[in-house]
Amino acid sequence: MSGLKRVLDRLGLKQTDFARLLDVSPRTVSLWATGEVTIPGPVKAYLRMLQFADESRRTLEFARLAAQSPGVNDGLYSLRYRPHGQPIEPGADGDGIALLKAGRIVGSDTGGGKFEGSYRFDSVRQTFHFRVWLRVPPEGQLMTGLDPGQAGSLVEVVAELDRPDPFSSTVVHVEGRPLNVTMAYLGPLPG
After folding, report:
1. For the structural domain made of 75-187, what CATH number should be given?
2. 175: which residues sit within 8 A by CB, 6+ positions away?
């Protein structure tokens, strides 16, 4: 095992995570690890800093990984929701899709509902905080059982959800009624 691999193992870092910290390709780190390419001086200095820094400094550095993670920022997510106490089954009513980009969220569900709103990520607690407006179509029905009527309705949903790794579940309250929600990261946005 190379010196770089040993240091990364001691720090609990994968080569891909180290590449993200330095904003270089994983291939570059792999070349350094195999010795095919010499590790540049500034990279060696950064490694030494990580090795000898106190725990709080390392924690701050490693928090940058969470902030950069595609599972935290932009991406495509699946949603599943059911009335509280009912199992969440794939392909049933209540499935949806959401796009998260730059603090904005938009999406739709199998029942014709559409939603948009905002989110922020708390990197310390590793949680998403959402504020979403759900537009229920005329004659639609909320999973909580509330009837939006012939005109449809606009419902505000505020939620806090752990970082999906690969998925996360919570209970939100919609018009005062509990709803189980599961969110899973599907992948980055194209382009």
Report:
1. 2.40.128.380
2. 142, 144, 146, 155
pLDDT for residue 81:
84
**Secondary structure (3-state) at 54:** coil
For the chain, the C-alpha Rg in angstroms (whole number) is 21
Closest CA to 85 of 127, 161, 144, 129: 144
Contact 142, 111 (CB under 8 A): no
DSSP string across 17-30 = HHHHHHT--HHHHH
- Kindly report whether the peptide bond that precedes residue 166 is cis, defined as omega within 30 degrees of 0: yes
3-state secondary structure (DSSP) of residue 40 = coil
| The token pair that represents 127 in the structure block | 């949680």
Pick 91 or 106 by higher pLDDT. Answer: 106
Which pLDDT tens digit goes with each residue over 114-171?
Answer: 999 998 887 667 788 899 998 988 877 777 777 777 888 888 989 998 877 778 888 8
**Residue 98 vs residue 163, higher pLDDT:** 98
- How far is the C-alpha of 68 from the C-alpha of 99, rounded, in Å? 17
Q: Which of 144, 136, 147 is nearest to 111 (CA)?
A: 136
Strand partners, 180: 82, 171
- Residues of the chain within CATH 2.40.128.380 domain(s) are 75-187
